[in-house]
Design a protein that fits this description.
Distance between the termini: 13 Å
Strand order of the largest sheet: 1-10-9-4-3-2-5
CATH class of the largest domain: Alpha Beta
Structural class: alpha+beta
Bound molecules: FE2/S2 (inorganic) cluster, fe (ii) ion
CATH superfamily of the largest domain: Naphthalene 1,2-dioxygenase Alpha Subunit, Chain A, domain 1
Number of strands: 17
Number of helices: 9
CATH architecture of the largest domain: Alpha-Beta Complex
CATH topology of the largest domain: Naphthalene 1,2-dioxygenase Alpha Subunit, Chain A, domain 1
Largest sheet: 7 strands, antiparallel
Length: about 375
């Protein structure tokens, strides 16, 4: 390991070992160092659970979603028994990528030489291979990957035997389970690439300090959120904070037809980072999530989606109006975040970039740094 990489890891560990009162931002070269990215790939992205999308985005047998977990193309596909399986998106003939993007198939047919697989990964057809002695389609199937679900999200792990998702997120389930976000109805999803390091985007999503400036005309337009924002120490698997609204303020509230969400949660917005890079904004009237994956040190692949509770859509005079209004806001917020997240990535390249002190509202950035230190520094 180079001296430069060692000094990044030392700064990361030192910052994590202190108290939050002394916390600083991550060492700027951590966003640009290739050996650090390789460590992150080996110890985070090839080990931890990676969010692929939502069950409700793939409701029918044959519906699939693809992602590249760094060098490993994978897909999840709804089975005939309605469970969801994950596979390496790599043909067992000569390794062509089988599926792209997202969509629906009744069988999986390789675009190169037409080897055909059942939805459960079993090879069932291979043209002209009867002329190859000893070949039997029954001997071949796609590589199955670990797949799990939580609150309507689908996760894949490249680790052959990962611990299940739900126990690791039990504390989070206790906090947000009664939102029933698994029942929210997907109204939008998209995959895009931004010119930044993946950590800049995770940090930005969990940063409640920039709202008053960057989002002063969107999320911040209802007034000052800083006093309503409560932050908590992060755990092993996730960090979070919430914005507790009051009855009088008219922004994010549970619909009157929603009888199951109780107490303060009816007026509360949770911001959650499930490590490493699944982030969620959960409100009584909206779910916005990002699944973030590195594509080199300087690019990030983002699959993001928005869902709205059924009771809101069902009681709307015009369903599409509700969707259009929410999406206009989210697109606006994204267009406000993107330039600053790309800006920070560029400027952290400078030898003049330093580790600055964190505000109270950046508590979850420190939690994220401690997660990185736990996993990268030992
Ligand atoms: S690579 Fe898939 S059939 Fe040849
Ligand atoms: Fe933002």
């Amino acid at each position: 390991m180079s001296l430069a990489t060692e000094s990044i890891l030392k700064a990361l560990a030192d910052n994590a070992a202190g108290s939050f009162g002394d916390a600083k931002s991550l060492p700027p070269p951590i966003y640009h160092d290739s050996p650090i990215l390789q460590l992150e790939i080996d110890r985070l992205f090839r080990k931890d659970w990676i969010c692929i999308g939502r069950l409700a985005e793939m409701p029918n047998p044959g519906d699939y979603i693809c992602r590249n977990i760094v060098d490993s193309p994978v897909f999840v596909v709804r089975q005939k028994d309605r469970t969801v399986n994950a596979f390496a998106n790599v043909c067992v003939h000569r390794a062509a990528q089988l599926l792209a993007g997202e969509g629906h198939v009744s069988r999986i047919s390789c675009p190169y030489h037409s080897w055909t697989y059942e939805l459960d990964g079993q090879l069932i057809g291979a043209p002209f291979m009867n002329e190859t002695s000893g070949f039997d389609v029954g001997d071949y199937r796609l590589k199955r990957l670990a797949c799990d679900t939580w609150e309507g999200f689908v996760y894949v792990s490249l680790d052959p035997q990962p611990a299940p998702v739900a126990p690791a997120l039990a504390e989070l389930t206790a906090l947000v389970g009664n939102y029933r976000m698994g029942d929210y109805v997907p109204v939008f999803e998209q995959t895009e690439t931004w010119d930044t390091n993946w950590k800049c985007l995770v940090e930005n999503f969990m940063d409640s300090y920039h709202i008053h400036r960057v989002h002063k005309d969107s999320f911040g337009k209802y007034g000052h959120y800083e006093d309503l924002t409560q932050l908590f120490p992060g755990g092993d698997a996730f960090s979070y904070h919430f914005v507790q609204e009051t009855e009088e303020r008219k922004s994010f509230h549970a619909h009157p037809d929603n009888s199951w969400l109780t107490g303060d949660n009816r007026d509360r917005t949770y911001l959650v980072n499930i490590f490493p890079a699944h982030v969620i904004q959960l409100q009584p009237d909206l779910l916005w999530y990002l699944s973030i994956l590195p594509d080199g040190v300087d690019k990030v692949s983002i699959r993001w989606g928005v869902s709205i509770p059924a009771e809101i859509l069902d009681s709307a005079q015009d369903r599409q109006d509700v969707i259009d209004e929410e999406m206009a806001l989210i697109h606006r917020v994204n267009s406000e975040d993107r330039p600053i997240v790309e800006n920070v990535f560029q400027a952290t390249r400078s030898p003049d970039a330093v580790q600055g002190p964190l505000s109270r509202l950046e508590r979850n950035l420190w939690d994220f740094g401690r997660y990185l230190a736990r996993n990268l520094c030992s």
